[in-house]
Design a protein that fits this description.
By secondary structure, this protein is of the alpha/beta class. It has 2 domains: 2-121, Enolase-like, domain 1; 128-340, Alpha-Beta Barrel (TIM Barrel). It is built from 12 helices and 13 strands. The chain has helices spanning 59-73, 82-90, 96-113, 117-121, 140-152, 167-181, 197-207, 222-231, 245-254, 264-267, 270-282, 296-306; strands at residues 2-20, 25-38, 43-48, 76-77, 128-130, 133-135, 157-161, 186-190, 212-216, 236-238, 259-262, 286-289, 338-340. The longest helix is centred in the first third of the chain and has 18 residues, at 96-113. The radius of gyration is 20 Å and the shape is globular.
């Protein structure tokens, strides 16, 4: 395969309502869409959109990296083999979000050229992906209304942001959620590293009676998360504490943490994520794919990755409704709390609106 054309376009997405966690407030998402064309006339897209507070690179780093590599990719020959393609990309200096975009776009081209590419090099994909609803750092009544709405829409897993200055407010919220909505739905918590180890140890003991599926990042340091996993009755999940693929493999192989949350835009793309997924499966652990509020373009790549996992836990892909207007129609809308994926709808066709 030969890359005949390499273009990139800026985009900006405004959230309907600022999304608040204990760590930050997200009001909009900015980034670039990469467009690639091969010698057969196929076109594909990828998204690079780092987010401050999560990504290593800045928006200026992104612009510089795209400018540096544009000419290098035009007329570049890529062998249609996953390992060779991965090696070729490793010879370029790419910031994580640009690597994600390139891997997304190039994989889409390869699938368009060879419909058996996924089965041949990645494996059999799930046709149905469970999705969790995301509930921000809001007042109780707003959270209750959102849960009711999502229950009616078929969701059964709810991720609730916690980490208020007074833990009693968090505890009251979770108690009321269970009292109002019962025990049959899955509740996940995300504290965004709010607590010190001693606090987390105490708080998790008090939360353990509410049948919490897991809690993400109760502490900011990886060593504290590892120690908590040794004793906590609430399963511990690791997310932004992971700084590299080596960190992820260390957690999988040498800790009792059973849930690994991966944001591929931050982590550096498809290949690293696929490697972690396969390694986790060998240890009977679970990788959850989580959005960084990507556009519909970036989200489509996350859907492919979520479909490679071998468990039925819900993934964090319910973000499209947060935007005032996306850059295109979402080809993977959530229906009845699930996303459906078939060989006919991947890779999707996009009609971009970048005005």
């Amino acid at each position: 395969m030969i890359i005949k054309d390499f273009k990139y376009f800026p985009f900006s997405l405004q959230l309907k309502t600022p999304f608040q966690s204990s760590a930050q407030i997200i009001k909009q998402r900015n980034g670039f869409i990469i467009s690639l064309n091969d010698e057969l006339g196929n076109q594909s897209l990828g998204e690079c959109s780092p987010l401050s507070g999560f990504s290593k690179e800045t928006h200026n780093d992104l612009i510089q990296n795209l400018s540096e590599i544009k000419s290098k990719f035009e007329n570049l020959f890529l062998k249609e083999d996953l390992s060779t393609f991965n090696f070729q990309l490793s010879t370029f200096e790419l910031v994580p979000s640009v690597r994600f975009a390139l891997e997304q776009a190039i994989l889409s081209l390869m699938i368009k050229r060879n419909k058996s590419f996924v089965n041949q090099f990645i494996g059999i994909l799930k046709s149905e992906i469970n999705v969790n609803a995301v509930l921000g750092f809001e007042e109780s009544k707003i959270i209750f209304t959102a849960i009711e709405k999502k229950l009616q829409a078929g969701y059964n897993t709810f991720k609730i942001k916690i980490g208020r200055d007074n833990f009693e407010d968090d505890l009251k919220l979770i108690r009321e959620v269970r009292e109002r909505f019962g025990e049959k739905n899955n509740i996940r918590l995300d504290a965004n590293g709010k607590w010190k180890f001693e606090e987390a140890n105490n708080y998790l003991e008090r939360l353990s009676s509410f049948n919490i599926q897991y809690i993400e990042e109760p502490c900011v340091y990886m060593k504290d998360l590892i120690n908590l996993a040794e004793a906590s009755l609430v399963p511990i999940a690791i997310d932004e504490s992971l700084k590299s693929i080596d960190d992820a493999l260390e957690i999988i192989n040498n800790s009792k943490i059973e849930i690994i949350i991966m944001k591929p835009m931050v982590f550096g793309g498809f290949f690293h994520t696929l490697k972690v997924i396969k390694e986790a499966e060998l240890k009977n652990k679970k990788v959850i794919i989580s959005s960084l509020f990507e556009s519909a373009v970036g989200k489509s790549g996350l859907v492919l990755l979520a479909a490679t996992t071998n468990h039925n836990f819900a993934h964090g892909l319910d973000t499209s409704e947060f935007f005032e207007k996306d850059i295109c129609a979402d080809p993977f809308k959530v229906k009845d709390g699930k996303i459906n994926l078939t060989s006919d709808n991947y890779p999707p066709q996009f009609n971009l609106n970048l005005t």
